[in-house]
Amino acid sequence: MKINFKNKTRAGFSLVEMIVYIALLTIFTSGLVFVVVSLFESKTHLTAREELAYTSTITLEKITREIRRSQSVDLFTSTIGFHPGKLTLEPEDTSAQPVTIYAQGGRVFLQEGSSTPSPLSSASVFVSNLVFTHMSNPTSDGVLVELTAEKNSRGATTTKNYRTFVVLDAS
Fold first, then answer.
1. Are the C-beta atoms of 59 and 121 separated by less than 8 Å?
2. 8 lies in a domain?
């Protein structure tokens, strides 16, 4: 009895076809996993940059507001031109306490008189540099504020430098 293989229809896949399909599926899946992981890392870094920018901007706005509200800079108790900077501001209202802005432990603080210091920056952002530079001329006084902030997110550190110049309103 002879079996005729030529008339029989083929059912299923050959071994070579199966290996090719598995290889193609593996390549496609690996590419898809790479894209998803890259998107997740990009989102993480973007979120870190947004938080860094937001926190630094708010901190600089608070410092700017305090400088503008002050009468003068107390140069004897301030640390000018060096990190960690310390800026003591004399208020326009003589009955008010002096305001001190300083960096400590990677955060920026504001202290009015001898009251408890309040943080100006978020604990999630590390302030690695805060320098105040006093500038004056015969008609006005101003302060250059330089701030460097860092945000660490999943092993990657994002660093941003900020500078602003503020003229004291009382000048």
1. yes
2. no
Q: What are the beta bridge partners of residue 146? A: 131, 163
Which residues 6+ apart lie within 8 Å of 103 measured at CB?
83, 84, 85, 86, 109, 127, 130
Is the CB of residue 120 less than 8 Å from the CB of residue 110?
Answer: yes
Q: Which two tokens stand for residue 21?
A: 């399909």
Span 112-128, mean pLDDT? Answer: 90
Residue 124 within a domain: yes
Question: Considering the domain boundaries, does residue 14 fall inside one?
Answer: no
| pLDDT for position 3 | 59
Q: Which residue matches tokens 């690695």?
A: 128
67-97 in b/e form (b: 16+ CB < 10 A) is: bebbbbbeeeebbbeeebbbbbbbbeeeeee
pLDDT band at 8 (very low <50, low <70, confident <90, very high): low
Give, as one character, the DSSP assignment of residue 128: E
CA dihedral 13, 18, 24, 28 (to 10 degrees): 90
Domain range for residue 119? Answer: 21-167
CA-only gyration radius of the chain, Å: 31
